[in-house]
Amino acid sequence: MSQSPVKVAVTGAAGQIGYSLLFRIASGAIFGPDTPVQLRLLEITPALGALEGVVMELDDCAFTTLDSVEIGDDPRHIFDGVNLALLVGARPRAKGMERGDLLEANGAIFTEQGRALNDVAADDVRIGVTGNPANTNALIALRNAPDIPAERFSALTRLDHNRAISQLAAKTGAKVGDIRRMTIWGNHSSTQYPDLFHAEVAGKNAADLIDDQAWIENEFIPTVAKRGAAIIDARGASSAASAASATIDAARDWLTGTPEGDWVSMAVASDGSYGVPEGVVYSFPVTCSGGDWQIVQGLEIDDFSRERMDATAAELIEERDAVGQLGLT
Ligand SMILES: NC(=O)C1=CN([C@@H]2O[C@H](COP(=O)(O)OP(=O)(O)OC[C@H]3O[C@@H](n4cnc5c(N)ncnc54)[C@H](O)[C@@H]3O)[C@@H](O)[C@H]2O)C=CC1
Ligand SMILES: O=C([O-])CC(=O)C(=O)O
After folding, report:
1. Residue 14 known to bind ligand
2. What is the structure's pLDDT at 302?
3. Cβ–Cβ < 8 Å for 35, 252
């Protein structure tokens, strides 16, 4: 192992997602087997005792890729010099809540953490937001970090993307690995638009192959968009292992690149592509290379897709305005 260590901050490290995420990062799932990782774990003060227990377990795994672990409750200390910050820590929703209901509870966290990252993170920092409402939390963080380019922030819609791939594979009998060019447009919420019109199954257009608009509208889209709620109903707690896995997938592809001929879904600051207003963090199809992302351009958008893309943009604008009224940005 010759490379110098990468510093990775994880917030909410003693939570459910953290319990799965930390072990994957420590074992090399983002940076591979040759890059040592320094974990810097942020929690609120009352959770530091539980976090110490998680650190004992990390030690007990004897991961060759884990260089060091530091824990604390001060974002300015934990984020000092970090190259990657995964902002997971936030209150999860309970049964019957929409993710937007968490805006006020969680918005303040991302104001403080955006400011701290602005002041102390490494110059090359990338910031991935998993904590809900993820898109608007990312917007709050980036607005509070004026010295960090907005392109360095993204919110997690990779879980929705992976859910959509899994549903499409089950419907068509294809293998997950045969599916490419899936897209989640918009918000990580029930208004998101999982798009089969540009997805491919073994090189064939997914919507043409399925040839069943009713299934797309009445089964596929709602199943993907409401999967988080279905898991809360079934488990009594929100998705954790799958959310951690998607957080890893998203960070790995952002930093190491997307496969040739494929793309992934990432919620990023809109640049106006596809008529999505600037000033919101919206999920687009993106390709990544060298730690940067680019929105895939030139996809044809029909009326059905347009309507759904606009509806989820409208929800993000409402969230942005609500946050403005709370004085959070
Ligand atoms: N974007 C996505 O696809 C998904 C997002 N989520 C969201 O991820 C977040 C975390 O979920 P879980 O791990 O299940 O929740 P959890 O409640 O098990 O853990 C959250 C942790 O964050 C900590 N925390 C709270 N405020 C903090 C602060 N200011 N700084 C640092 N840590 C803080 C808490 O002490 C707790 O340990 C929730 O907002 C949840 O809704 C969950 C699944 C998927
Ligand atoms: O639904 C929730 O609240 C947790 C989440 O974001 C998901 O599972 O997609």
Report:
1. yes
2. 97
3. no
Q: Do the annotations mark residue 235 as ligand-binding?
A: no
pLDDT tens for 227-260 read 999 999 999 999 999 999 999 999 999 999 999 9
Q: What domains lie within the chain, and their CATH numbers?
A: 6-155 (3.40.50.720), 158-319 (3.90.110.10)
Under the banding of pLDDT at 50, 70 and 90, the label for residue 107 is: confident
Question: Which of the listed residues 42, 88, 112, 249 should we mutate to test ligand 1's pocket, taking the one with most ligand atoms within 8 A of CB?
Answer: 88
159 lines ligand 2 (CB under 6 A): yes
**Strand runs labelled E in the chain:** 6-11, 37-42, 66-72, 84-87, 126-129, 153-155, 179-180, 183-185, 193-195, 200-201, 204-205, 264-269, 281-289, 292-295
**pLDDT tens digits, one per residue of 114-155:** 999 999 999 999 999 999 999 999 999 999 999 999 999 999
Q: Is residue 294 annotated as involved in ligand binding? A: no
Rounded to the nearest whole angstrom, what is the distance from the C-alpha of residue 237 to the centroid of ligand 2?
9
Is 93 near ligand 2, meaning CB less than 6 Å away?
yes
In Å, how far from its chain's centre is CA 202?
26
Query: What's this model's pTM, rounded to 2 decimal places?
Result: 0.97
CB-CB contact of 88 with 12 (8 Å): yes
The interface predicted TM-score of the complex, written ipTM, equals 0.99
